[in-house]
Amino acid sequence: MATVRFPLRWVRLNGSGGTGAMPVGGREVVIDVQDLRMVYPAPKAGVAPTVAVDGVRFQVGRGEIFGFLGPNGAGKTTTISILTTLLSPTSGQARVEGIDTAAHPHDVRRKLGLVFQKSTADEELTGRENMALQAGLYGQSGPAVDARISDLLQQMELASVADRFVKTYSGGMRRRLELAVGMVHDPKLLFLDEPTLGLDPQGRAGFWRYIRSLRESKGITVFMTTHYLDEADQLCDRIAVIDHGKIIALGTPKELKDGLGGDILEISVQPGAADLAPLVQSMAGVKSVARREDTYRLKCSDGERLIPKVVLASEQAGISVRGVTVAKPTLDEVFLELTGHAYREEGEGPAPRIPPGDAGAGAPGGDRP
Amino acid sequence: MSFPAISLIRREYLRWIRAPTWVISGLMSPILYLLLFGQAFDLGKLLPPGTPAAALAQALSGAPNYFSYFAVGMVAFASVTAAMFSGTGIIFDKQLGILQRILSTPISRRSVFLASLVFRGILTLIPAFLVVGFALLLAHVPDVAGLSLGAHVTALDGVQFLVAALVLSVAFTALFLSFGFAAQRIESYFGVVTILQLPILLTSNAMYPVSIMPTWLQYLVGFNPISLAVNVMRMSLFGTSGYPYAAGIYLAGLLAWAALFVGLALLLASRALRTDVATPGGSALSAAIAE
Questions:
Q1: Is A52 on the interface with B (CB under 8 A)?
Q2: Of A76, A169, A214, A332, which one's alpha carbon is 20 to 30 angstroms from that of B281?
Q3: Is A19-257 in CATH node 3.40.50.300?
Q4: Residue B219 CB-half CA count within 13 A
């Protein structure tokens, strides 16, 4: 997708409303968050308190992969910390498997597995010893647990390095070990906080494969935060987009992208040609037309089918078409539309899209499995 | 103790057995003191010739020679030096996120604290035993002063010696653990610990008899937990004559210190391990999350 931005006025998505707000297909609700607020007190007088999470509400159904997408500082880690009992909310309620996280943290901890942003394995121990330690912290030991540890290490393709010290592991191995450690007590619910941070594209794609394989083999529900748009797009069944502590959109990746009005057709014509806009505006499926010099940008449904019509009509009108591209909208566009600013790291100014150069590859459109 | 706590102790053990270097560094000072200072600085030789042996023994609380007197002090010093490392593990666990992982599991906060105290307390005892053994061995080396026991040391005395060493270890392990729970950085931890080390040692009777000190210092020394432990240990090995109180009184005083330090450690640990509130500086965890 071209990075040239046109001053299009797209239909604004309706916050947390719409069909995407509830788990699909009448699934059992595993995570239920109501009006969650988290305010960190001011570190000193004269500084405003930080509102990290500002009235967040959503539900996650059994078996879903639910993505929490937003830039750094948007409130993702605070939310996941509340859900996993590492923080108590200022107000509001979070229920995990029906249990209030603030009132009964101990019971909630038994129900979930957690994979942190950073590697939390003990470097001086082997992968297997880290797994055994984690199992022990849940009060589990014995041959059955040892067998499960071996199975998980196998599934994460760590069997060959299981008895090496973690300090010798590569970044990808560490991430996989974190995942295995988070799964060691056989939770039905897995929380992942920026699980692929710092991995190269190949490592990330691999990691997604492991997540999917865990979901398929164990039927777990996954709640993950990410600031990678393509990751949310590829991996998640539903996505909540969070910015400045508020959920600004919630739905399946397809719903979010469709909300933008469908495909984008870019047509460049011979310089000095007559205006194409009146010609194409009336065509079926075209929602809006924007022009910059000799390039037209059409928002339309079913872009591929429109191409021959547009080209034919143009040629008949004596306008010579030099090139046509069709692009499916990406979550990047969704984010831009919702927030009015391009997707970027918080506090970094208008940085390149994240991941750089990867946004196009992550835009295969709404035809997800 | 619950099973999860045993898992934590096992982890600490595995880490320690693979990198036991600090035991050596913790032992260095006491061993050097025994080998050099203890050999050179014989208080008995400073007495005028012809002083009766009984007068020397009285000054040295019944010890047959200065080295034996001094060696018991070094046993206590070895424990305290070793305990200085007790709080380091918890700081690294905080910094590396390992503590956060542990706290995300159902293990009780009390178990996390107890596992640290038990394992570190035992580790702190090891150097004490090594110093006793080393000092006893030196007695068999020609031309070298060594630790000689009193004539009537019974098994019960041995137990009393062990109890004093154990309570002292627990007390200082708890004290330094509490600094570990409170500190966010290893530099600030060792800053505090290093400042404390010498005053704690020098205001005790580990190296010289109380009787030669000015009165104001005697008061200070009398309440020092090292002095209380050393009193009980010396009474166990050299007899009880010359002490104003019974061994039980000193032991009670030492226990009071231990209770105070364990209480302090519990308080600071529960602050450091709490996950339910976010107050600036209140919890390492919430501070890390807020960043």
A1: yes
A2: A76
A3: yes
A4: 2
Which H or E run includes B149?
A: none
- Interface check A85 vs B, CB under 8 A: yes
Domain ranges of chain A: 19-257, 262-327
- Which of B6, B11, B90 to mutate to test binding with chain A, by most A CBs within 10 Å of its CB? B11
Measured distance CA(B263)–CA(A347) in Å, rounded? 44
Contact of B6 with chain A, judged by CB distance below 8 Å, is answered with: yes
Residues β-bridged to residue A247: A242
pLDDT (average), residues B61-85: 89
* Distance of alpha carbon B103 from alpha carbon A216, whole angstroms: 29
Q: Does domain A262-327 have CATH number 3.30.70.100?
A: yes
Within 10 angstroms of residue A111's Cβ, the number of other Cβ atoms is 16
How many domains does one find in chain B? 1
Q: Of A38, A21, A118, A42, which Cα lies nearest the Cα of A79?
A: A38
A·B CB contacts under 8 A: 102
Confidence of residue B253 (pLDDT cuts 50, 70, 90): very high
Å between B291 CA and nearest CA of chain A: 9
CB of A87 within 8 Å of a chain B CB? The answer is: yes
- The predicted-structure confidence for A217-236, as pLDDT tens digits, reads as follows 888 999 999 888 888 888 99
Q: What is the 3-state secondary structure (H, E, C) of A11-68?
A: CCCCCCCCHHHCCHHHCCEEEEEEEEEEEECCCCCCCCCEEEEEEEEEEEECCCEEEE
CA distances from A2 to A359, B51, B121 (A): 10, 101, 65
pTM of the model: 0.77
Q: At what angle do helices B3-18 and B109-138 cross, to 10 degrees?
A: 40
A137 vs B7, B18, B289: nearest CB: B7
For B278, the closest of A87, A121, A137 (CB atoms) is A87
| pLDDT, tens only, A52-65 | 899 999 999 999 99
Q: Which of A4, A21, A2 is nearest to A247 (CA)?
A: A21
pLDDT-based confidence at A258, cuts 50/70/90? confident
Residues A241 and A223: their CA atoms lie apart, in Å, by 13
Pair A82, A53: CB distance under 8 Å: yes
**Count of residues making up chain A:** 369
Put simply, the answer to whether A138 touches B6 (Cβ < 8 Å) is no
Contact B105 A124 (CB under 8 A): no
> Could you tell me if A124 lies within 8 Å of chain B, comparing CB atoms?
yes
